[in-house]
Predict the 3D structure of the following.
Amino acid sequence: MGESQDDRGDRRRRSPDGSPDRNRDRRNRDSRDDRHRSSRRREDDVKSSRRDSPRRRPSRSPSGKERSHRDRDSHRRERRDRSTSADEDRRRHRHRSHRHREDRDRDSERSSRRHRSPRRRSRSPRKSPSPPKDIQRRGPLPSQGDAFSTELTQSGDGPPPPEKEKPNFKNTGRLAAESNMIQVEGGEGIVLKYHEPPEARKAPSKEPWRLYVFKGDDLLEMVELGERSCWLVGRERAIVDFPLDHPSCSKQHAALQFRYVEKKNEYGDRIGKVKPYIIDLESANGTSVNGDPAPAGRYVEVMDKDVLRFGLSSREYVMMLPS
């Protein structure tokens, strides 16, 4: 019975004496296990390094420690150098300020010495200047006019000095002019010379005052004065209440004013009464009461049957109370 070569090879492989195949399998298994173990160790090392990384120092080797010590020493030296340089700058600045103060003090002392030197020289005893002989007078002091007079007038050679203009404290009339301006139809403004006082009143009905106008023996006109408290007399027909035509009369000549005046009787009681008054508004030719000139700008009481005349007019104005 003959066997082929293939059957012989199969028998050899299946025989228990096939040791080379088993060794190969073992080696492959050992290499796999070693690889697996090395990979596990690496993973464990990485995990442990991650856990211990914040706790560990940057370098535990002796070279790292030496480097850290060197860095610390260099930082400390730099800080020391900076502090010493700042201290030196401060000392220099203080020294300079101290020198500047000393220079100021020296300059002030020199200037004070310079200023003091003429005073010390002036302390030398000197005789006080005697007053001039002309000022020394005996007797009372001269009057104010003589004191302000010049030497020429004292000697009598020149003309007398002009009199000094005295201050004028009277009202200028500008405020009154603005408040008493009246606009006429033509557009021009006329300033009133007179405005009524606070005690102005109308004449009471029980005393009907009347003004009679006479020219010679002829009665020209009769005016009831109880209509208003003030009667402006003059040639300016646009503003006056009682017009005058004579050329000697002013535009605003006078004013006839009724005023409430209080007087005390013998028992000390106050008795008030409305009375007529005439006031001349500084006219050119004046106003007269019973032939006597009335003072300009002052109230003059008018009684019953008093005769008024304005300017150089021949007309007579009689104040009367009906009986």
Summary: The longest helix spans residues 62-122. Residues 99 and 105 are 10 Å apart (CA to CA). Confidence is low (pLDDT under 50) at residues 9-18, 54-62.
